[in-house]
Amino acid sequence: MITLFNIEVFAATEFKKGKINSSSGSTTIYSLAGTTGHEANAADKGKSQALCTLTNGTEIRILAEELDGDGDMWYKILYGDSFENTGYAYNTRVSIVYDYAFDEDFETNLQNFPQSYHAALRALHEKHPNWKFMAHDINMSFNEAVEAQYGVDDIKNSRKWVELNYGSDNWKDARGYNEQNGNYVTLEARWTYASRAGIEYFMDPRNSLNEDKIFVFMLQAYNEEMYNKNDLKSVVKNTFLEKGYDKNGDGILETDAYLDDIVLAAQGSGVSPYVLAATIIIEQGVHGQSNMISGKYTDFEGYYNFFNFSASGNTVEEITESALTYAKQNNWNSRTAAIVGGAQKYADGYISVGQDTYYYKDFNVVNKVWWHQYASALYDAWTNAAYLKKGFLSNDDASIIFSIPIYSDLPSLPCAHPDAEPLPPPIDNIYDINSDGYTDNRDFSMLMQYINGWGVEPNLTVADVNSDNKINNKDCVLLMRYINGWETTP
Q: Mean pLDDT over all residues of the chain?
């Protein structure tokens, strides 16, 4: 596949099979990417025309992916009895069809899952035949599992939080909203309680049966046969773990120092090295500049805590000193000692008691001991899993086992994304960059194209969103925050 401009084009002999799959039962095919007036290129404005309507189940061939003027993805397709016609279909109204080869062993195992899991698992199996999916009967209802996190009787019993600036208000618990000051209750400076809809969305296993999220279910035990150093390098790429450190104190940087420590910790603790690396990155950030691992914090020189064990308090200083006191008590007086020792604590606290996936760590439906969960952040498991994805998606030889929970009363359809219905654009023209009377995604698209040198000149007066007499990516960021309602005035 070749990438050109904002189009991903498949080679002449290459295409993907697809079919129309729209919630309305049909979709309109257009002559260009985008509905009329929403084309990507200024020269094409107003030229996209409706060609026909295709009903659900109609087979098509997908030739390319192309963005419209709003930044939305469209498929360039072939359609008709002999696929003789060319047009564009909005990507969310198309399902890609995989040529699934019947696998008797896989199909037998698939019967352990509810019917609503089957299509997604077949698609994953077709792309990754070495992956193994294990059905884990949780022996409780989905409603019970959600309410254990939500705190039905008292919001203070809710166990899941979201950041105050995360998405729309649909993600936040309305019970925590103060109408007098217009704010949500604040937890630890930047968090608030998660909404029931948000908890349902993340807890519904079917919303994670795709390449982006499936790694929340990956079993975390160390498997020596599965270990590949290049995969581990993919996980730590562009982070401080990739750079290594002066392990021997001789002034020479050893680029594999952290990798060696992580593998040693994996062998001793029985925890996957990929999981250990991902967890460290999440806890310490990609740059690794926390005082907990600097080894230079006053009164705690030479001590490290890579997993942030016992990091608690009301200020940064209290949190740091609490974590380093724990490190001192456990004699974590080198990076190696801290990583090896922290990995063992991680194994003892979670892996050994059955919380052996990111999902089970954050939603303890295995033991139903609700206070014993790794993080309050609603999306913590998916943040961690993103690093595992980096290490495995390109390696089809890896034999990975995924433990996927089964609940007794799942809704017939996957729980909806809290923001499934897009919010209407602000009804104003404060930053009307394309002069159409509104401030919306079309203004963002026009500004982005202009900054990148491949669009027409916008209204330069309003394009300077942050009023610094420059038009650059800072204006794009502020404009998008305003359009999404995250900022009242950029």
A: 84
